[in-house]
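Input.
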Amino acid sequence: MAESLASLGNLGVAKSTWNTYKTAQTMLLKCGKETKVNMEVPLNSKQILVFIDWLARYRNLKGATINSYLSGIRQLHIVRGIEPPVIRTGLVKLILKGLTNRDGIASRADHLTGRLPITTNVMLLLRKLISKLDMKDQDKALVWAVSTLAFAGAFRISELLCKTESTFDPDFDLMGKNVRSSTSLAGKETLHVTLKCPKESRNKTPTIVDIFQNDGPLCPIAAINEWKKNSFRDPDLPFFCFQNGTPLTGAKMNILLDKTLGKYTDKSIGKFTTHSFRIGLASELGRLGFSDEEIKEAGRWSSRAFEAYIRLQRTKRSVMAKEIRKLNGTQKTKGK
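Output.
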């Protein structure tokens, strides 16, 4: 019974989240040793405040990290069969808000933006830089294919690439059989990417993302077809693999982005990562004047989180304002 319940509990939280919770437990023990305060669970309000202060003042952690550790402490109570206390009291919420504001002030002072958006211009530069990598031509084509697909579909990189080179999970990772194509009567090709467990949909129904041929320099269809020319694809193996059969991972892709775009990046401001493809699409759509709902649909955002990704100037609302001014009969005459 214990094993059965434990396995169900493990499925309730992602592996990466469990790792964060485990780290929170380790930090709690370190806090107890350094502050000489008993940190045995169940914790009371005073212990929680001591833990927050220690994380913020002595570990210099950001508010978001501290907040995740508090979730880990709550989970620690649950897995030990202890009713968790109210972790985020009114005072704790106020302190966390203050930490968030502190982090925001520091970022603005340092002109930090975090992950930079990969825009169309950056994509064109990336294409040239990939061609200069010390890799086999087939593997260069692979990196470019992943880049164009991630950009065009606003994919999270975990939806396209495996987490490790040595293992893969066919129930979650993108397999060869999960990518198919069709051709319209007009001769245009569409790529259908089946995501078995997308972040925005945790039910059992897969999400199919359609990627359309655009015939431009950043066309993902052309890039993938070029890569597949000399690449045998086993439908039951990860879709994106190097020529030697090793899966391309998100971590490896981040290394390649830093290797190519790193020397053209002011890292005191931000850096390019695999998530920059997703940020880039939102930024470009915002710049081109697409509505919020259109941007949400394009990136499969279920909330307004995409607004944090729009790093370029928005034009849609200015156009709408002009139209409203016309309706009100207050439009200025030409030349004024």
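The first helix runs from residue 2 to 11.
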